[in-house]
Amino acid sequence: MFNSMRNKIIIAFIIVTTIPLILMAFFVYQDMGKALEKEIREGTSKEMIQMDRAIVTMLNSIKEDCQYLAINPLVEMVDTVDTFYNTQQEFVSLSNDSVHEKIYQELERYGQQHPDTAYAYLGTEKGGFIGWPRRAAQKGLDPRKRPWYTPAIENQEETFLSEPYKTYDGSKFTVTASHFVRNFEGTAIGVLGIDVSLDQFTRKFSEIKIGETGYVFMLAKDGTIMAHPNREFLGHNIAQLASSGVLISKDSMISWNFPEYQRLLEGSNTYFKTMIEGQKCVVNIQTSSMKNWTLVTVVSVDEIAGRAKKVGIPLVVGTIVLIIMILSLIPAVSYQLTRRMDELVKHLNHMASGDFSERLPDKLLASHDEIGGVAKAIDFMQKNRQQAEWELQSSNEELIDTYGQLAATEAELREQLEQLNIKTQELVQSEERYRLVTAGSQDAIWDWNIKGRTVALLGQWADNLHLSHMFTDCDIFDPRVVNKIHPDDLEKRRRNLEEHLAGKTLAYICEYRIIAQENETLWVLGRGKALFDADGKPIRMAGSMTDITQKKMQSLKIHHLAYHDILTGLANRLSFLEKLSAELDVQDNRRSGALLFIDLDNFKMINDSMGHAVGDQFLLRTAKALTKVAQGQFVARLGGDEFIIILSGETDRQTISEFAQKLIQAVSEICISTHDPFAVTLSIGIALYPDDGYDTKSLLKNADIAMQCAKKQGKHRYEFFAADMETDIIHKMRLEAGLRKALKNGEFVLYYQPIVNADEQLVAFEALIRWQSPDYGLISPAQFIPVAEESNLIVEIGEWVLQTACLFGKRLHDVGLTNVHMSVNVSVKEWLQDDFTYKVASILEETDFSKKCLILEIVETVLIENFQKVTDKICNLKKQGIRISLDDFGTGYSSLTYLSELPVNTIKIDKSFVDALLEKSNYAAIVGTVIQLAHEMGFDVVAEGVETIEQMSFLQDLKCDRMQGYFIGKPLLEEKIWEKYCQDIT
User: What are the strands of the beta sheet with 279-287, ordered from one edge?
Assistant: First the structure.
């Protein structure tokens, strides 16, 4: 059946036309069903919106009417009768002119004017009740216990709208609008309410028509059915009804099967399909805008399908008729399309049988479509074949003559071939020897035939670099030959080659780089020698290339190590000195710039507390931060934690200041460990050249002096060099030398300041060091302690202070002051000493001073910055009975954060808080809070700097444990203490 082209076309037409029509009809039917469903969904949504508006309007109207009735003058005139009824049964006799009767008439008038009203009433605070319409009095009815009463009392300014509930007699379900009522004097009367029966909602919903079988019902937010076509459902909770599946009324039993009832209680607008009473339905949910009541429409899916079928039947009939018409036309169309094809097939069958005499019809050849084109091609082929037969016959005769000539030539060629084979074998042997020599060498061999314009490259390198072994029509400078040479070395190679070819050098020697595979760079030693003719012109040149990469890398590495820092990779001191010397040597060109001498402020603390490995990591990150900010400017590490930056050509102080500030900011953001966030900062000294120095030595010295000045000014800053700075440095050096001499000659003395308790009794002395210099006189510790800490002399000084204070404390105990403590300040350098606890124990043992009477003071910032390392030592000392005092409390940046973890006994409030105690209320509040918090955490509190009786009285009121200051007693020498406190005892 399918052997015929005509039958294939018929089948193709049937498939191409009928299947799309069937699919189109199917999808049109599907779209119609979806369109009908969408129409019903949108229609029901509009109906529910309109119904919601009607309900909202009705309820708002009732709420407004209830509010107006509540302020009716007659209602506000009601007396205080405890109980009254509105029917003849147990009715309190009232006259027609009584206020109660007039109120009833007002309620009756309102009810008759508003047919939707089911009940109107007034309940009083004393249990009274008036209601319209008149009905038998319910004995025991207390309006105060009804669900509409209490909410109205609680919210007296607004009208309360209740959820559905049963009437008092249990006969109906209703919704109440209630409002608080008071008389003219403002005394509470009770609550006025208006009831709307759920039947009213159902009556309004019954007017809505959703197709033929659709209906609408409404739920309260707790699931109570407020409106339904079946009045038996009113007032019942849909959850109980759907879960039981049966509703039993007085006279009948009604089934209810709604598996997805929970979706009605979710309170969201939605649209879904479900089964209700075994029938597939479409449910549309809309939430009311007033009380979150739920409006629900239900439409049977069968009704939607029925509408679709009414439209679908004509569609199916039309599709079938159209298919029948198409099928009847297909054979005729197929015949017309294949008729000329049959003529072509018939003609080709004649040609296949060997008959080429018959020609195609002119009508077929005149066609301008594809079939006509095929016919013309067949006719052209037929003509060419006839022409080719004639030409082939002529060529056959010529071939016979040529064959004789070829036979004679064959013998001659065979003899020449034998000679060629002999030469080839000799050439192969020579080539093998040459390749063997080349392969045995590690060098690459090259040969340049200058006259023949060829370049040959032999050896392993040619293979490794993927270079051709022979370049023709070129010279050794050709791009094809030099494409692997590094661009920066091309000029040097060319120059060396040209000098040798010109006879200026005996041999060609040049070191250059080659870019191998994967961008690997190799260093090569190129050597060669040229051959010259009688006129001195080069005619040939040969040479080699040797891999010297390893040797070159070692040489470059040695050079790099000589001029770079091993840890950071920055330029080192030697490189810096050469760079600066080169800058200063070109003074004829008025070269100028700035030298920034950089030193890390607290770097030694990192090495001492966290180890050199962490310190090296910090130096690496510092070097990266400085290099990033420098942006190409020269950066070097001089050694340790010192760095240097040269700003060539920059002398503007504002620009240099901004640059220095960026350096400080970049380094301050470096953090090695989140557990120990050390604050390491920069101090920068800046010297300008040529203003601050003409040579490297003076310029570096002045920058160093400026850096030292920055440290002296508080660190974390920069300073430009000034001439008077050198004087300060010399003074500092002299001061340090004087300290060393003072230790040796015993020039230090201790003063002792008394500390009293809240009862003004002596409890302790604080040892304060002074320097009695024969050259400078009495020097305050504020002047020499920073120098002592920086030079590390503080460790020896601190040890002397502790020993001297303990000896004096022992003498005080020996004369009877056994309860007096001795308080000694300890520097951070002392706390960080590994043997500090051992030294304290040794001094106590040597002086025989009581451990329980020794107080060691530590500054708060020191403890916070070295928390873990210092706290271990404090805990060890506390176990021995030694007391620890936290000095300058409140001046640190994390006092309250660390307070709960501090292993201390006493907190000393800083003098700055005591000075402002009576002047600033917030300072008084802070001091009081600190004292209270310290006591709750088991700490004692000492207040420093008490200078007036008012301050002392205020601190006593705050229950401060101890106090010291000039008002209590100035620091005194040992002799004065002895005279003042011990003379009476001895």
Answer: 225-227, 215-219, 294-300, 279-287, 270-276
